[in-house]
Amino acid sequence: MPTRSFTYRYLLALLLIAGLTSWGQVLIQRQLSEQKSDSWLVNYAGRQRFQSQAIVKDALLLTVGASMVNTRQVTAELTQLLNTWEQYHIELRTGKLTALNVQQVNSTIVQGLFKKIEPHFEAIRIEAHYLLEKPALSLAAKQQAVDAILSHERQFLSQMNQIVDQYQREAQQKTEAAQRSQRILMLATALLLLLEVFLIFNPIVQTIRTNFAQLATAIQQAQADNGVLQATNTATQRTQQQLLRELGLRHQQQLSEQRIRMASLVEGQEDERRRLSRDLHDGIGQMLTGLKLLVENLQSAHLLPANEQRTYAGVKELVVKIIQETRQVSNNLMPPVLCDFGLEPALRYIAEQSAQQSGLTIRVLSIGADTRLEQSMEIGLYRIVQEALTNTIRHANATDVDIELRIRENRLLLAISDNGRGIGPAQSDDVVNGQGLHNMRQRARLMNGVLRFISQPDLGTRIVVTIPLETDLIEPIPVVGHEEMA
Prior knowledge:
Order of helices and strands: HHEEHHHHHEHEEHHEEE
Radius of gyration: 66 Å
Strand order of the largest sheet: 6-7-5-4-3-8
Number of helices: 10
Structural class: alpha+beta
Helix content: over 70%
Largest sheet: 6 strands, mixed
Number of strands: 8
Strand content: 5-15%
């Protein structure tokens, strides 16, 4: 790929530049170190000339009478000068600079010059030590030693001047070599930069220009495609919205059809109950009443033996119970009070009947329910209360039940609450998905209402039905108020 090739080239160029820069720094540091060493060598060599002259001066002072100079001070100064002079000479000859802790290698020329100067150095050193070690020499002996020092001191200075000059020439040569190396490095760096410009940066610029041109073309094409996609998306959204509307309408239609079927089924069930209630009341109920009258009108019942009289009494009691049970079944199928007086009296009637049968305390609270509702709604609400009371009597182990009916601002609220054992987590699924609660939900749904089931263990159960009232209310009925059945 071109990008990878340019990357490799660029990295290689950077490595070369870094190498040249590092090499230049190494050369500079080496040159600085060598210049420092060379400056010390030149300094040491220059000091040797000065110190040799100082040694000659102190030696001459020792030949002067003690009354004219301080012999002890001159001797101490000469001793110090001689030690320093010898140390510097040894360091210069061996190249081991103690002050810098550097080992300098002398050139062949410098080594030859030190060999030539060595006899004069030794002669001066020996004669100077002789003067220091023999302070009691005669003036003639001292003068002879000083003459020997003077005879070698001139040659020593001449040779030392040659050594200093040689040190300076070698330092200049090193500087010139370093300058040549620096120029070579500068030329190599410049050449490398030119190569980078022509081989790396220029192709990269051309590639970038080409890529930008392609990118601009791609952007234009993408904008065109985006316009097409937006148009397609708009059409798709419109189609999707239309489909959703159709699906919603179909769903509403299905719900309406389902509600109509369920309403028809419930209405058929209620019609069948009404017919059965009427047949029980008008048919079997009348026949049982006639049977009761016939049994009561038997003329010779008192003439029967005691056993048969007891049988007669049992038959008469059984007929009365059958009549009562038939009347109760007829009322459960379709209570006349619901059809004649409306929902609120019917709720009080079923509360009274349930309280008598179960021994529960059942309270009915009616607020704003002084009007008749649509018959199907009254029957549906009555069946919900009937189912809730049945479940409470059978399963709740409650002692108190409250039935609340409220109508306010075109909204009806029906609530059935008990203080029973409630529903635990283990039973919640069975109860919520049970047939009884399912029937109550279906009846509430048929009335466009919502049924909520609220229950907690040991805190009782509450069933709340909320229905919006969209139909016209019928004739008002008297408000009964709050009544308690026990």
